[in-house]
Amino acid sequence: MATSPALAPTDIETWTIRKLRTRIIPFIYVLMVIAFLDRMNIGFAALTMNKLAITSQQFGFLAGIFFFGYFIFEIPSNLLLHKIGARIWIARILISRGIVAMLTGFSQTVLQLYFVRFLLGVAEAGFIPGILLYLTYWFCQREQAQAIASFLTAGPVTSIFGAPVSDLILDHVHWFGVSSWRWLLILEGIPAILGSVLTYFLLPGRLAEARFLTATAKDWITPELAREEQQRLATRRITAGQALKARFSEYSNTTVGTLVMIPYVVGLTAMILVSRSSDHALERRYHAAIAEMVGAIALFLLGTITAVSPFFSIALWCFVVMGVQNFMAPFWSLPTQFLTGFSAAAGIALINSVGNLGGFAGPYATGAISKWYRQC
Question: Which of 231, 239, 259, 280 shows the greatest Cβ crowding within 10 Å of its Cβ?
Fold first, then answer.
């Protein structure tokens, strides 16, 4: 255990929170980058998957079936995480996802791709709600929006840096006569396996395992977290069962990757500012609702305004990304205001799993609409 620093009582809170942020957040941030990288690479692989003769409707189903598997196993996975422990269960998620992600690169038919992508959703199920639940073991309510935003920024950051890397692989990696899209899926599955090993040995499960915290820090944070849990129980006790009820095709791959970066750079900056504002005001609903409205309006304009310049399209996409990303941190801070224990594990997983049905329905509907439009 770390040596207790000479701190005044008023400084203990500041020191503890800073220590938690520097020790916990960077680690799960890397894990989130790995997760988002695995999710987005199928979109880039599609740029060169022509040999499998995949139609737009088939690709929509291919992208969406991942979320179907995710939906089915989301809640059981999070309940197991709460019971078994975050360190072991997150490590399990990572290694199984990494192996399945690499197997995707060996698929020979569309049906095989369907099956493996479904398995990838099963393997990853519970990861994001698991991380969200894990943060409640360490951060009080007044710190949670910033903590959540700190690791959710991994999404736009992965797009900023992952898109160019993925496109470079597609443009230049054709080793041993194997298609570049296969190498993309294989190579980008390896970090998940490495992340699993690091998680098992380095990620502390709960406060008792946190050697980086002093006894003084633990003596401060433990009753703080317990007090908030008691407040949630006193406000309304909810059981686990109740919680369950409760356009650049003419450009090169590398250029497309560079263009994708811009909205995520803007969204990343906005996410940090909005999460700080949400924590400072301890207000979640309006921060989340306004962000969603901004994103929805921008998305509507993208679909209805024609003959716009590329610069205007990028500007609208910036607002779309800001809306989607800024919604996340305040929204995911809401359930932990009244859920605790197994109720929190089930409730967070339920919310995320239902939301992920949109990830199944959206790409499939987009592919079907695209096919129908070309036939008209």
Answer: 259
87, 200 Cβ separation under 8 angstroms: yes
- For residues 275 and 148, the answer to whether their CB atoms sit within 8 Å is yes
Separation CA 197–CA 144 (nearest Å): 27
Per-residue pLDDT of 226-238, as tens digits, reads: 887 777 666 554 4
Q: 25 vs 60, 68, 244, 376, CA distance in Å?
A: 33, 29, 28, 50
Q: What domains are defined for the chain?
A: 9-246+337-375 (1.20.1250.20)
CA-CA distance, 192 to 199, in Å (whole number)?
10
State which H helix or E strand residue 92 sits in: helix 86-104
How far apart (Å, rounded) are the C-alpha atoms in residues 315 and 308? 11
Residue range 12-45, pLDDT digits in tens = 888 888 888 888 988 998 998 888 877 777 767 7
Residue 82 tokens, joined: 């709460």
Half-sphere exposure (Cβ direction) of 110: Cα atoms closer than 13 Å: 16
pLDDT confidence tier of residue 259, bands split at 50, 70 and 90: low
Which residue, among 221, 206, 237, has the nearest Cα to 135 in the 3D structure?
206
Global confidence as pTM? 0.64
Distances (CA, A) of 350 to 151, 320, 330: 20, 25, 17
Q: How far apart are CA 373 and CA 39, in angstroms?
A: 27
